[in-house]
Amino acid sequence: MTQSDNNWTTIGRLSDLVVGSGVGARYRDRQVAVFLIPELDDRVLVVDNYCPISGVNIIARGIVGDIQGEPVVATPLYKKHFSLLDGRCIEDDSHQLATYAVRVDGDEVQVAESAEGTGAAA
Amino acid sequence: MSQQNLIVIGNGMVGHHFLEQLAESGQAANFSVTVLGEERNIAYDRVHLSEYFQGKTADDLAFSTLEQYAEWGFDLRLNTRATSIDRQARTLTLDTGETLAYDKLVLATGSYPFVPPIPGNDREDCLVYRTIDDLDAIREAASRSNTGVVVGGGLLGLEAANALRELDLDTAVVEFAPRLMPVQVDEPGGNLLREKIEDLGVQVLTGRATQRIEDGNGARHQMVFQDDKLLETDMIVFSAGIRPRDELAREADLAMGERGGVVINDHCETSDPNILAIGEVALWNESIFGLVGPGYQMAKAALDTLTGGDRLFQGADMSTKLKLLGVDVGAIGDAHGDQNPGARFFRYTDEIRGEYRKLVVSGDGKQLLGAMLVGDNSYYDTLLQYASNGLELPDSPESLILPASEGGAPALGVDALPETAGICSCHNVSKGDIVQCVQEGASLGEVKTMTKATTGCGGCAGQVKEIVDHEMAALGIEVDNSVCEHFAYTRQELEHIIRVEGIHDFHALLKNHGKGLGCDICKPAVASILASTWNDYVLNPEHVGLQDTNDTFLANMQKDGTFSVVPRVAGGEITPDKLITLGEVAKEFQLYTKITGGQRVDLFGAKLNDLPAIWERLVDAGFETGHAYGKALRTVKSCVGSTWCRYGVQDSVQLAIDLEHRYKGIRAPHKIKFGVSGCTRECAEAQSKDFGVIATENGWNLYVAGNGGMRPRHADLLAQDLDTDTLIRTIDRFMMLYIRTADRLQRTARWLENLEGGLDYVYDVVVNDSLGIAEDLDNQMARLVENYQCEWKTTLEDPEKLKRFRQMINEDGDDPYVVTVEERGQPRPATDAEKLERIPAVTV
Ligand code: SRM
Ligand SMILES: Cc1cc2nc3c(=O)[nH]c(=O)nc-3n(C[C@H](O)[C@H](O)[C@H](O)COP(=O)(O)OP(=O)(O)OC[C@H]3O[C@@H](n4cnc5c(N)ncnc54)[C@H](O)[C@@H]3O)c2cc1C
Ligand code: SF4
Ligand code: FES
């Protein structure tokens, strides 16, 4: 793990990501899910990997898509949808994923805590 | 009101309908009901009796169950015959010797097949065609016979002839009249029918009176005709008309018709108002009605007579539409034109196609009085509407029977029909009744349950659907079949676009035909279509994001995020060495092992990171992926078959293995399962599978569209006694047609149920190549079979692909939150409480 700037943590390289889908990564004491979406100008989006519905670290394994234009990931076990922009569960707003700030520096994908949501152009 | 003793004699179609109506009327509590049925079976669908030979069981044909009768509170006594009625004492004697008292009696004893009084008609294997027991006897006799003769060339006779033909007998029909079906068709029609039936290899002898039946020379019997000509045959089925079973009524001195039948009035009362008669035993206005529709109408009238309602029986339409030995025959109203002096005729004959149509119109050319059709019944619905609703005919009525290419009129649209138009004659349902249901929000299925339309003879199904569709369109109810918000197409339409435009990836499809990013509905659906069209490797970069999680990791994800590993065990056959490997792998990676319902071994609890190493071991030992994760062939369940089993007649294991290897890996709208049994004992439960194969002495019987699971469905027999090549070709085509036309996640059972034309249509397409696409289907299947790859083998060869099999890209090792506990000597996922104990620092 390399640390750059004050808060930014490098969690992997662009070549580690899977186009049109997600991978898991360690960020500090938790696991995050990192998505690379070609249809959104190759945007990288990062949310928690822990699915509060099933209690398992599997969000990265879900299918990415949109509901009425909002990018979402479908949870692989029980097929609920979480917004990739603000992390809320579309079907049940008592569930929420944390979202993370992302930036791409060269080919390094870097993550930081975020209050505003997630997303960076790769 | 105190309860009246009501006894119904006869538990056939009409008697049952009467009871069902009574139960639904809410008036059943006013009666103490006893039902006597001479047959051992509870009331069943006699109209579809012949399907008993096509694989339907007595249970399939039954209208009800003993439990249902019990729930209704009716005392049903099967295997029990009423032997006499004492009208003075109002009692009934049974063959058990018991005597029952009645206040009201309903005779629903139906009719019996008439056997002409020919010497020798009681010889062995001289049978009739009316009950399930009769059919059992015919099947048994046929198994010992090579040739069979049906005496009687009417509707039922031809149906019996078809049955004999399907039982593999050389079949002949002997008719006393100068032509076949003398009641329904005239001479030109009869000649045409004869030609068509002879083309099927059934011998037709008309104008023949049998004098006697005696010992044959080559066969069991010989029939001697009036001109001393002879016909040798092993068995005979009499189907020379029906006679009312009126013996009880006759002995009780009720008013009878000259040629039999219990006389009834419009209330269905006999000459004794305490005794009613309904169905084929009843004679109304000097007519017996040998169809179920009029019987049902009598049942309703009789019910009203007993319960103070006002429905009457005032005659019924005897129009019929049938397919006999694959030949369409229809007769409407006064089809011969002999009941209306001054009637005029139009006739159309096409000797090439084998079609004949006749119109009987009133002298002024304005009304249709009757019609006759041979060869093509598509004209029937329109003609029936003109006749039964008295619609005024167009200026040139002949246009109604001309083919469209020769100026024929288009079929009468349902919107042209008045609300009062009768649509279902069996259940007396009008267009208005159907329209009303739709306006109340009913779907097609609900219309059928609410009105019962289509559940009698089924002849009205096409029109009912048309009216429902039309009415829904009129109400602006659109049936949206789009896959999802990203594609305004059905799966079938997407399949078509992909195949015709040669599209190879989701991105291109979305750009040209869809919108947005796609979603978890359309992506896997398109992935499946792409896979079954081109059979590319599912983890190619352009496909990987489309796959359901299970396909992405080529394993099934479990509730704790670990995976199950299911190697293919073709046909359920496995060597000891391979079993040992499975055990070793399970031990090494600490996997839970279980024998599945599909005759193979499932290894549960594999961590994402371990999947490649596990498969490395398995592939080395000669295993391939079992596609437990894919919408693809799962397993071909086998029984041990002729190799070991004393009853086996074919090598079911070999066939199961061959089938499994042929179809493995092919992606379909849903999973596909097979079963292969080595004899009729059916230990592989093949009839509950998408494709079921059962060995016969001569080859294989192929069953299709069975299902276990949430809504089980017994498979339908598609073809019999196939050799292995024909079997495989037939499966190829059926499967390809399914892949091309089914909805997403629709298994073969639901697909076939929803397919217009059903099994007959599919048979026509895959066996007779009626659409001319068989070659195309064959080629497409050949390509899929050729392009098979073990996805795990391919994946292991590509380090790029293996990247994905990591819980975290920046850290090796497992997901620390996956915890197992030992139970019964094997690991299982920890419960939430157990997890808290074992992972002290769970931060979420
Ligand atoms: C492992 C097994 C149970 C067992 O312990 O024996 C099993 C396990 C599952 N079945 Fe099954 N079925 C298994 C045999 C069956 C059978 C019996 C058979 O095949 O003879 C049936 C009924 C027969 C049939 O399919 O018609 C069966 C009918 C279903 C259904 C209902 C399908 C339906 O049409 O109604 C589902 C749900 C679905 O597919 O939508 C299902 C779904 C599932 C899923 C995939 C549920 C899920 O989404 O997680 C299970 C995952 C298994 C895994 O992770 O590996 N499973 N399942 C069996 C695996 C057989 C194999 O070797 O591949
Ligand atoms: C092969 C076949 C195909 C047919 N196809 C068509 C078709 O396509 N369309 C159509 O409209 N009709 C068709 N029919 C005719 C239709 O089946 C009959 O019209 C209908 O079954 C008449 O009903 P029912 O109740 O009057 O008589 P049944 O159904 O014959 O029932 C009478 C019952 O009463 C029992 N019974 C008689 N006497 C006694 C007694 N003393 N005590 C106790 N029980 C007694 C009999 O055993 C029988 O079970 C077909 C018939 C057959 C055989
Ligand atoms: S029956 Fe239900 S619980 Fe059992 S394996 Fe099948 S899907 Fe799972
Ligand atoms: S006409 Fe027989 S079911 Fe409708």
From TrEMBL, chain A:
Q: Does the keyword field hold Transferase? A: no
Show the Gene3D superfamilies listed in the entry.
Answer: Rieske [2Fe-2S] iron-sulphur domain (2.102.10.10)
Q: Specify the superkingdom.
A: Bacteria
| Stored Pfam families | Rieske_2
Q: Which GO terms describe its biological process?
A: nitrate assimilation
A single GO molecular function term of this UniProt record: 2 iron, 2 sulfur cluster binding
Q: Which residues form the Rieske domain?
A: 9-111
Supply the InterPro entries for this chain: NirD (IPR017881), Rieske-like_NirD (IPR012748), Rieske_2Fe-2S (IPR017941), Rieske_2Fe-2S_sf (IPR036922)
The UniProt keyword set, sorted, is:
2Fe-2S, Iron, Iron-sulfur, Metal-binding, Nitrate assimilation, Oxidoreductase
Report the NCBIfam families cross-referenced here: nirD_assim_sml
Q: What is this protein called?
A: Nitrite reductase (NADH) small subunit
Question: According to the entry, what is the taxonomic lineage of the organism?
Answer: Bacteria, Pseudomonadati, Pseudomonadota, Gammaproteobacteria, Halospina
UniProtKB/TrEMBL annotation, chain B:
Q: Cite the Nitrite/sulphite reductase 4Fe-4S domain residue spans from the record.
A: 630-755
Q: Which residues form the Nitrite/Sulfite reductase ferredoxin-like domain?
A: 558-619
Matching PROSITE patterns, A to Z? Answer: NIR_SIR (PS00365)
Q: What are the names of the required cofactors?
A: [2Fe-2S] cluster; FAD; [4Fe-4S] cluster; siroheme
Residue span(s) of domain NADH-rubredoxin oxidoreductase C-terminal: 319-384
Where the record annotates domain BFD-like [2Fe-2S]-binding, the positions are 423-469
Q: Where are the transmembrane segments?
A: none
Q: Which UniProt keywords apply?
A: 2Fe-2S, 4Fe-4S, FAD, Flavoprotein, Heme, Iron, Iron-sulfur, Metal-binding, Nitrate assimilation, Oxidoreductase
Report the residue ranges that make up the FAD/NAD(P)-binding domain in this protein. Answer: 5-293
Bound cofactor: record note = Binds 1 [4Fe-4S] cluster per subunit. Binds 1 siroheme per subunit.
Q: In which pathway does it act?
A: Nitrogen metabolism; nitrate reduction (assimilation)
Q: Which is one GO molecular function term here? A: nitrite reductase activity
The residues the record assigns to binding siroheme are: 683
Q: Of which family is this protein a member?
A: Belongs to the nitrite and sulfite reductase 4Fe-4S domain family.
Designated name of the protein: Assimilatory nitrite reductase (NAD(P)H) large subunit
Q: Which organism is it from?
A: Halospina denitrificans
Taxonomy, top ranks, is: Bacteria, Pseudomonadati, Pseudomonadota, Gammaproteobacteria, Halospina
